[in-house]
Design goal:
It contains 21 helices and ten strands. It has about 600 residues and is of the alpha/beta class. The mean pLDDT is about 80.
Length: about 600
């Protein structure tokens, strides 16, 4: 319940619905017991055991309330019998029907209001999880499977939502039903009622034994579901590779192994859950068997209780079984819900190491320079950047080159503050990156990556990510600058054309030009181009390179490139090896040195 209590705060906005649910559950529990008692006069008439009471009884004190109610009921039935048995039956049966109508009406109203609470919590939890996912640092997602995150936002939240109903049933409705029923039973016979009281703790004890491992089993089920959702996600995204390399059987075996584990865990979980209801019913019917034996003697031998009253008592005793079973199910449901809540809380309470500091400032523009001061960064105890120092003046284009794994992209990621530096600092106009508000930093920086990240939406809406309030004219101008306008207007729906999942309805060059148009529309002061042309054919590269030159005009740009022909016009080329700068200068200066950069040029010309 530790994690579940943390989830309960999401119910606070819906407390009015919870209160109404409680009120109607109380009424339901009251009329549930009353509707059974209403059978007593009906059975009395049918068995012709009705006591004749001609004088209307007078109420005296609370201790004699039971006797007064019996006398009053007998008096009312006697008066009706004077009008004939048929008429009396109609009145009594009408009373029973009305009481059952009220009982079920209040049951419906209780469920009606709990629906708003459950679905409201579901909505708010998913919104909170999605908001957290949006704001968590990039590093968080390198350690988590996408399928597992999807499982937490979908099935785990749904499990918690279902458990909310169980909480209210466990705390209000079912216990009150049992209490009101027990009160009615004690008014009939205290001796018989003790047998029923014994049943409840015994049942609860055995049910708790069954449910001890339920939370662990539920956690295994949820984790496995997240795992095979990840496999599905990887399979869909990697279709070309899977088919080309003939890896279909490998992935099928992987998926089937996961679903086999899911089958095993689910069976174990459901077996435990399903054991609750029959166990509680068995204990209940055992008690009723004892009641029939003991009560039968009271009716037939001692004659201390009427047969009609004893039948109603048996009905009341059985009436306890339903809420008792519901409580046992609720206990199981809450245990499952707590396991799901733990997985949700893990995300909601995940530490965001990149939050704005209390003294963070707004930085709206780059005025003079960006400076890397002895920057160090490691990942999983592996040193990526041992010590990197570089000054970039406003308006300069700096190219980072070097072999794969030399740390070029890491430098760009640190500047965009996808990660925080561990040693040294990065400053913009002498203000450390960690002291600049994340939102204002994001507004200053634009990124075009090697893999064009586009969304399953129209071209226009993909471009508007760069600037939400951009006009159609601004969109067209940005597209023209990115050499994208001509191919866009040739599409069937122009800028309203849907580009499919990850933009797969477009060619590589077209996707890249859309990404560049998006960056142009944002109009960033600092531009990061990470291998923006490396995956393109020669013709597409020509269009994209022209677009990149357009976007870099008047901006401070950091260009990461493998194709060295694309960065020869850069103001400074920085050659990196193992996270360090081994050489820097203009293209012509580095060629004359005939060192690291020259060797890279020679390798690409071979």
């Amino acid at each position: 319940m530790e994690y579940f209590r943390k989830i309960l705060k999401y119910a606070i906005p819906y407390k009015a619905y919870a209160l109404l649910n409680v009120v109607f559950n109380i009424l339901y529990a009251f009329f549930s017991a009353l509707s059974m008692i209403a059978f007593i006069p009906l059975l009395e008439i049918l068995f012709q055991n009705t006591k004749k009471t001609i004088i209307k009884p007078e109420y005296s004190e609370i201790v004699s309330l039971k006797s007064y109610l019996e006398e009053w009921l007998s008096y009312q039935v006697t008066n009706q019998l004077n009008e004939g048995i048929a008429t009396t039956l109609i009145y009594v049966i009408s009373l029973v029907i009305i009481l059952f109508l009220l009982k079920n009406l209040f049951n419906y109203l209780a469920l009606f209001f709990i629906t708003y609470l459950r679905n409201g919590v579901l909505k708010d939890l998913r919104n909170a999880l999605y908001d957290k996912v949006i704001n968590l640092p990039v590093a968080f997602f390198t350690e988590k499977r996408k399928g597992d995150l999807m499982s937490r936002i979908s099935s785990d939240v749904l499990e918690v939502q279902m458990s909310f109903l169980s909480i209210l049933e466990l705390l209000i409705r079912e216990p009150l039903t049992i209490i009101f029923t027990l009160i009615a039973m004690f008014t009939i016979s205290s001796k018989l009622s003790f047998f029923v009281i014994i049943f409840i703790p015994i049942s609860g004890f055995f049910i708790s034994l069954i449910g001890k491992k339920l939370r662990k089993d539920s956690d295994l089920v949820q984790k496995e579901q997240g795992y095979f959702l990840s496999i599905i996600d990887e399979t869909i995204n990697g279709q070309k590779i899977i088919k080309t390399f003939g890896a279909g059987n490998t992935f099928i075996n992987k998926f089937q192994t996961s679903t086999k584990r899911f089958f095993k865990y689910s069976n174990r979980l459901l077996h435990r859950t399903n054991l609750a209801a029959p166990s509680s019913e068995f204990f209940g019917i055992s008690v009723i068997g004892i009641l029939l034996w003991y009560g039968g003697q009271m009716v037939l031998i001692d004659q201390s209780i009427k047969g009609s009253t004893f039948l109603v008592f048996i009905g009341l005793a059985y009436n306890i079984l339903t809420p008792a079973k519901a409580i046992s199910k609720s206990i199981f449901s809450i245990r499952k819900g707590d396991a799901a809540a733990a997985r949700i809380i893990e995300i909601l309470e995940a530490e965001n190491t990149l939050k704005d500091k209390s003294d963070a400032v707004e930085k709206l523009s780059l005025k003079s320079e960006i400076e890397f001061k002895n920057v160090g960064f490691s990942y999983e105890n592996q040193i990526i950047i041992p010590g990197f120092s570089l000054k970039i003046n406003k308006g300069e284009t700096i190219a980072l080159v070097g072999q794969s794994g030399s740390g070029k992209t890491t430098i760009a990621n640190l500047l965009a503050r996808f990660y925080d530096v561990q040693i040294g600092s990065i400053c913009i106009d002498s203000v450390e990156l960690t002291k600049i508000k994340k939102k204002s930093l994001n507004e200053m920086i634009g990124i075009v990556t090697q893999d064009s990240i586009l969304f399953n939406d129209s071209i226009k809406n993909n471009l508007l990510i760069g600037k939400e309030n951009a006009t159609d004219l601004e969109i067209i101008e940005a597209s023209k600058a990115a050499n994208a306008h001509d191919f866009i207007i040739r599409l069937e729906n122009g800028y309203e054309s849907n580009i499919g999942e990850s933009g797969n309805k477009l060619s590589g060059g077209q996707k890249q030009r859309i990404s560049i148009a998006r960056a142009i529309l944002k109009n960033p002061q600092i531009l990061i181009l990470d291998e923006a042309t490396s995956s393109l054919d020669t013709e597409s590269e020509k269009f994209v390179q022209e677009a990149l030159e357009n976007i870099m005009k008047g901006r401070t740009a950091i260009v990461i490139a493998h194709r060295l022909s694309t960065i020869q016009k850069a103001d400074m080329i920085v050659v990196m090896q193992n996270g360090k700068i081994v050489e820097k200068g203009s293209h012509d200066e580095l060629i004359l040195k005939k060192q690291a950069y020259f060797n890279l040029i020679q390798l690409q010309q071979v």
